[in-house]
Amino acid sequence: MTSGKLVAKNILILHGPNLNLLGSREPDVYGSETLEEINGNLSKLATKANVSLVSFQSNSEADLISRIQQAMEDETDFIIINPAAFTHTSIALRDALSAARLPFIEVHLTNIFARETFRRESYFSSLALGVISGLGARSYYLALKYAICNC
Ligand code: DQA
């Protein structure tokens, strides 16, 4: 699928470890929006665009991998993923996305390139259709906007 023709209809949003704590987790770094609020805003955008959206958060690498494998069997045609700390560690999660062969956008609330050295490496970026990093919750909203209307 070329990015020029991309218009997704069944989108899976994946949130990695500790993102369930958004709102109370280091709000000076990650912002004050809770994951529930972010998912709610994403759902509203998707409903407006008549697109099906499922959000899934897990602190477990295995569960995230299983969810990606499930996406290979269902109607999912696009993934937006914030792998959180697994960004910097998980070849297994990268391999799952590679096997799924579904286009995906990697998102981060923070600018991982402007933080500690260990956050500057991502196992996902070289496979991703695009990377949005550092715009807070808007990183997710912009990724979704791109997926649903390529705009
Ligand atoms: C993060 C950045 C990661 O380095 C960190 O481990 C996270 C969140 C972000 O969204 O900025 O948990 O992915």
Descriptive key words:
34% helix, 5 strands, alpha/beta, five-stranded parallel sheet, 151 residues, globular, binds 1,3,4-trihydroxy-5-OXO-cyclohexanecarboxylic acid
Question: Oligomer, anyone?
Answer: single chain
Largest sheet: 5 strands, parallel
Give the overall form.
globular
Give the C-alpha Rg. Answer: 14 Å
Number of helices: 5
Low-pLDDT stretches are: none
User: What's the helix-strand series?
Assistant: EHHEHEHEEH
Q: What compounds sit in this structure?
A: 1,3,4-trihydroxy-5-OXO-cyclohexanecarboxylic acid
Distance between termini? 16 Å
The percent of residues in helical segments reads: 25-40%
Helix/strand-derived category reads alpha/beta
Strand order of the largest sheet: 2-1-3-4-5
What's the rounded overall pLDDT mean? 95
Précis, in short:
The chain has five helices and five strands. By secondary structure, it is an alpha/beta fold. A five-stranded parallel beta sheet has the order 2-1-3-4-5, sandwiched between helices.
Structural account:
The longest helix has 14 residues, at 35-48. With 151 residues, the protein is an alpha/beta fold. The protein has helices spanning 27-30, 35-48, 61-71, 91-100, 138-149, and strands spanning 10-15, 52-57, 78-82, 104-108, 130-133. It binds 1,3,4-trihydroxy-5-OXO-cyclohexanecarboxylic acid (DQA). The site of 1,3,4-trihydroxy-5-OXO-cyclohexanecarboxylic acid has 10 residues, from loops. 1,3,4-trihydroxy-5-OXO-cyclohexanecarboxylic acid (DQA) binds at residues 18, 82, 84-85, 87, 108-110, 112, 119.
